[in-house]
Amino acid sequence: MIHRIDHIAIAVEHLDSAIDTWVNLLGCDRSTVTIHEVPSEKVRAAFIPIGETKIELLEPLGDDGPIAKFLSKNGAGMHHIALATDGVDAEAKRVSALDITSLGEPSAGAGGKKIVFLHPRDTSRVLVEFVEPKGTL
Ligand code: CO
C-alpha cells in the first residue's frame, strides 16, 4: 500500500548552498535538516522536513555516480518523487504486474531505508522511488 509522498528530490551542485536556499524558502530551522552519505549511490543527501513530507537535496559524491551523470546531462533540478509504503518488495511486485519495471532490486538507501526506483519510461517520465520508512508511516 502506498501511504503518502515521502519526499521530493532535487539534484544540486552544492549541498550547503542548496540547504540554505530551501531552509530560507521554507522558513524552517536548519537544525531540522539531516544529512546522509550513501556511498553505494555516490551521493550525499540532505532531508528537510515539511509537514508529513520532505525535500531531499542530492549532491554527487565524485564524478561518476547517477547524480553526477544527471547533473552533467540536465543541470540542477527535480530528480524524483518518493512514495512511502510499508512493503517495498510487495509494491514492486504489484506494479511489475502492470508492466512498470523496477530499476534493479530493492536496496538500502539514505538512512538504511529499503528503496527501489521505477523506470521513468513506465511512469510518465518521472523517476519514482518506493521507500519503506522505519517505524511508523
Ligand atoms: Co529519494
What this model shows, in words?
There is one protein chain. By secondary structure, the chain is of the alpha+beta class. It has a single domain, classed as 2,3-Dihydroxybiphenyl 1,2-Dioxygenase, domain 1. The chain is 22% helix and 42% strand. The chain contains three helices and eight strands. An eight-stranded mixed β-sheet has the order 2-3-4-1-5-8-7-6, with helices on both faces. Strand 6 and strand 7 form a beta hairpin. The chain is globular, with a radius of gyration of 15 Å. The relative contact order is 0.21.
Distinctive features:
137 residues, alpha+beta, 2,3-Dihydroxybiphenyl 1,2-Dioxygenase, domain 1, 3 helices, 8 strands, globular, binds cobalt (II) ion
Biggest sheet architecture: 8 strands, mixed
Question: Which CATH C-level class is it?
Answer: Alpha Beta
Overall pLDDT score? 94
Output the number of helix runs.
Answer: 3
Query: What's the number of extended β-strand segments?
Result: 8
Poorly predicted residue ranges: none
Gap between N and C termini: 11 Å
Overall shape: it is: globular
Indicate the CATH architecture.
Roll
Strand pairing plus helix content: what structural class?
A: alpha+beta
Bound chemical compounds? cobalt (II) ion
Supply the number of structural domains: 1
User: What portion of residues is helical?
Assistant: 10-25%
Strand content: 35-45%
Compressed to H and E, one letter per element, the order equals EHEEEHEHEEE
CATH topological fold name: 2,3-Dihydroxybiphenyl 1,2-Dioxygenase, domain 1
